[in-house]
């Protein structure tokens, strides 16, 4: 089964850059697009990156996404960290059997 | 604007059934696939099921396959999740989510506020 694995937590200081990795297993991460969702406490998830690297309108260009086929991983990069970036971040895709797949989520702390 | 409003959640005993509904508005409903995604208390997101724009295809996670049924009524702009043989591990907030396209791309571009399902005796 295709799975996505994320670190449980990451932390960084305001103004710095953080990279959240999402490693695929049981299949190629490049086979289908990867999305990234942000979920603040008590709130509904919202999209920060879709189709590997696209940003929905309203998401600042401090957020970027990438895919690395050689390591079978996706990454979410957030530059110029702000306190309001503190949230849970989930990568997501789907498998060859048309089942959606989420990573376990990464809690970002902005120190 | 896009609105997705879930209903039907509540407290139910194990092995009983519950039917969730999601009322959609603000967009052309039959142009989009629709998903259910759940989140157990304090846990991560889990994809549950999808129905294509025309109901031609449905797919389920292994954890609910054979117990849950997703369906849609394009005349009423609603999507349903019939949940049978409920288990305590089905306890979660259930979100209705719109797919970006009709044949699902699994990009959930709009989400409802969720409805809580609690399964316990």
Name a few traits of the molecule.
heterodimer, A: 111 residues, mainly beta, 6-stranded mixed beta sheet, 4-stranded antiparallel beta sheet, 10 strands, 0% helix, B: 121 residues, 11 strands, 50% strand
What would a concise description of this structure say?
Chain A is mainly beta and 111 residues long. Helix content of chain A is 0%, strand content 47%. Chain A contains no helices and ten strands.
Topology at a glance:
The complex is a heterodimer of chains A (111) and B (121).
Chain A: E1 3-5, E2 9-12, E3 18-25, E4 35-39, E5 46-49, E6 63-68, E7 73-78, E8 87-94, E9 100-102, E10 106-110
Parallel strand pairs in A: 2-10
Antiparallel strand pairs in A: 1-3, 3-7, 4-5, 4-8, 6-7, 8-9, 8-10
Chain B: E1 3-7, E2 10-12, E3 18-25, E4 34-39, E5 45-51, E6 58-60, E7 68-73, E8 78-83, E9 92-99, E10 108-111, E11 115-119
Parallel strand pairs in B: 2-11
Antiparallel strand pairs in B: 1-3, 3-8, 4-5, 4-9, 5-6, 7-8, 9-10, 9-11
Give a description of the structure.
- The complex is a heterodimer of chains A (111) and B (121).
- In chain A, 0% of the residues lie in helices and 47% in strands.
- Chain A is an all-beta fold.
- In chain A, the strands form 2 sheets. In chain A, strands 2, 4, 5, 8, 9 and 10 form a 6-stranded mixed β-sheet that branches. A 4-stranded antiparallel β-sheet of chain A has the order 1-3-7-6, with no helix packed on it.
- Chain A is globular and about 40 Å long.
- Chain B has strands at 3-7, 10-12, 18-25, 34-39, 45-51, 58-60, 68-73, 78-83, 92-99, 108-111, 115-119.
- In chain B, strand 9 (92-99) and strand 10 form a beta hairpin.
- Chain A binds chain B through residues 1, 32-33, 35, 37, 39, 44-47, 50-51, 56, 88, 90, 92-94, 97-105, and chain B through 35, 37, 44-47, 50, 57, 59-62, 95, 100, 104-109, 111-114.
């Amino acid at each position: 089964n295709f799975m996505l694995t994320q670190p449980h937590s990451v932390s960084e200081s305001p103004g710095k850059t953080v990279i959240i990795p999402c490693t695929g297993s049981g299949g190629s991460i490049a086979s289908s697009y990867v999305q990234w969702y942000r979920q603040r406490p008590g709130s509904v998830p919202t999209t920060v990156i879709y189709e590997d690297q696209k940003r929905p309108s309203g998401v600042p260009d401090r957020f970027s996404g990438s895919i690395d086929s050689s390591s079978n991983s996706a990454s979410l990069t957030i530059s110029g960290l702000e306190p309001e970036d503190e949230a849970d971040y989930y990568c997501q895709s789907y498998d060859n059997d048309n089942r959606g797949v989420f990573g376990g989520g990464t809690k970002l702390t902005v120190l | 604007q896009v609105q997705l409003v879930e209903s039907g959640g509540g407290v139910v005993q194990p092995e009983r059934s519950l039917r969730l509904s999601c009322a959609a508005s603000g967009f052309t409903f039959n142009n989009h696939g629709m998903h259910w995604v759940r989140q157990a208390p304090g846990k991560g997101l889990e994809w549950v099921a999808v129905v294509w724009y025309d109901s031609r295809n449905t797919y389920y996670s292994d954890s609910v396959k054979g117990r849950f049924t997703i369906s849609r009524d394009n005349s009423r702009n609603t999507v349903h999740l019939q949940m049978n043989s409920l288990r305590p591990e089905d306890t979660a907030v259930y979100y209705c989510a719109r797919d970006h396209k009709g044949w699902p791309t699994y990009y959930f571009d709009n989400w409802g506020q969720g409805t809580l399902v609690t399964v316990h005796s």
